[in-house]
Amino acid sequence: MMATTHPSDPAARELFVEMARWPIFDPHSHIDARRPAARNLDEILGYHYYTELAHSAGMPADLVAPELPPRERARNLATYLDRIDNTVQHSWLLEIARTFHGFAHDRISLDSVDALYDRADREDDGTAWDREVWDRSKLEAVFLTNDFDDPLEGWDASRYVPCLRTDDLVLKLHEPSTIERLGRSTGVDVIDYATLREAIGVIFERFVEKGARACAISLPPDFAPRTSTPKRAVTPIRRALHRMDFRPDEHDEVRSVVFWTIAEFCAEFKLPFDLMIGPVRNVYPAGVAGGRDLFDRRVSLYEYRELFNHFAGVTFPVSTLSPDAGAELVAFAWIFPNVVPNGHWWYSNIPAFIAADLKARLQAVPKVKQIGYYSDAYKLEFVLPKFNMFRKILAEVLAEDAIKGRGWSADRALGVARHVLLDNPRRIFGRGEGG
Q1: What is the second-level CATH architecture of the domain 145-341?
Q2: Domain boundaries, given as residue ranges, for the chain
Q3: Nearest to 254 by CA among 272, 271, 266, 242
Q4: Average pLDDT, the chain
Q5: Domain 40-119, what fold?
Q6: Contact 43, 72 (CB under 8 A)
Q7: CA nearest 217: which of 182, 186, 255?
Q8: Which of 41, 53, 135, 225 could form a disulfide with 120 if both were Cys (CB 3.0 to 4.6 A apart)?
Q9: pLDDT band at 433; cut points 50, 70, 90
Q10: What is the pTM of this model?
């Protein structure tokens, strides 16, 4: 299968085998550090890629409804896996089944799913299973996605690294639940911009004390960062905080001033600010959970020029959702020292798109400012097959373009690969060159 098979080209195979010996530094995931590995097969098959692909291929959404028993959901989904076994996502699933559960078949079907479900039952193993998946995957660090009011307790922050996710603060400040959570988690009575800024400062202080090494946000295509002075935002902020109706332009003003304030704290606390740009939410309301969002190709990094210029001391690892946005990201990383291409996200995370973007980045962007890949995984088991997919593509691109195309040695190509996979993420996210 695609993710498990070594490259056929001898030079690429040599590179891949060496990369597979390295630890994995994963700078973005959605893993729950309190329960990082899957306790059953349903937690693997419930990954939105499988439910949305199966639904797209004809599976009724109610066959994976949350109220169903886990084994029944897994059996229902397995009935439709033959319709999606051409996809790279299916290859990740097979690699998980083979690597972690000794699955010997080339497909998961209704005939084999029950036996696999039994083999994947790890409820009694608990944290021992978490450690086994970590060790087998050769993980070094996995970055989390933490809400601003997450207590950040119950795990080893040197392994599971906190990351402050700021979407709710920027995009949902006007919602009563956000304001209540903000006051409860910071102890600040948030009534105006001054107290809002104080509360955000408390959040940053707590996150940094707990080991956070990044701040992140997912932004819609209509968002355009711009300087927004607190004075201009006094009334919109007050209306948002006091649950008053406000106009769309006032909503934009609130989003702008809160976002800019967060960028200021990133500068103060020397945290990289991950920008994940482009999703349009709930395009397909009838879809399964996680399978309702798409992208808008009209988004442009040009709207972020003021941000990149103003915060020259902040590193912005940037991910774009649209597969055809890669050329613009390469150009911005080419010019701006603080713009870093970051992984291959969501709809762009398939080999055909990765290979094209990766080749352009390796040809045009300095090797010391590329972050090769992140898993975006919800369970630890997905980190290894996803990184193996990327390692294979990276090995093939370097073998073809660098070794054959430019006469590089294998050691020189591996040096670039190490920058992309390890040295750069370690340095940008505060671990140092040596890990």
Answers
A1: Alpha-Beta Barrel (3.20)
A2: 40-119, 145-341
A3: 242
A4: 94
A5: uronate isomerase, domain 2, chain A (1.10.2020)
A6: no
A7: 255
A8: 41
A9: very low
A10: 0.95
